[in-house]
Design a protein that fits this description.
mainly alpha
């Protein structure tokens, strides 16, 4: 049961990896403005969407797995333990699936 969860977690992490800057990349050029106005229901710039998804993913992942958060140096979760019950694992797996769907919904640039 642990292996599929790990595989989903790694898959989600790998899908979000392109949104992370390369180590030692220095300053990056400014991102172009969003391709449209989100307030009126149009699509955001895909890079901005991935950036927001990666931030959301990390905070959510650390909330589901506080031991990993602490080991990664994120000490906001030091007083918590993961829910290792069957229901807790199922909720975490469902959350990972939602994250994968959100990443898959981001429009790829040509």
């Amino acid at each position: 049961m642990k292996r599929p969860r790990l595989a989903r977690s790694l898959s989600a992490s790998l899908l979000l990896l392109p949104a992370c800057p390369a180590p030692g990349a220095g300053s990056r050029p400014a991102d172009p403005p969003p391709t449209s106005d989100v307030a009126i229901g149009r699509e955001q710039d895909p890079r901005q969407q991935l950036r927001e998804l990666s931030e959301s993913f990390l905070s959510g992942y650390f909330a589901h797995d506080p031991v990993t958060a602490t080991a990664s140096g994120e000490h906001d979760y030091d007083d918590r333990w993961p829910d290792l019950s069957a229901l807790g694992r199922a909720e975490h797996a469902a959350w990972i699936d939602q994250q994968l769907e959100a990443v898959a919904a981001v429009q790829r640039q040509a």
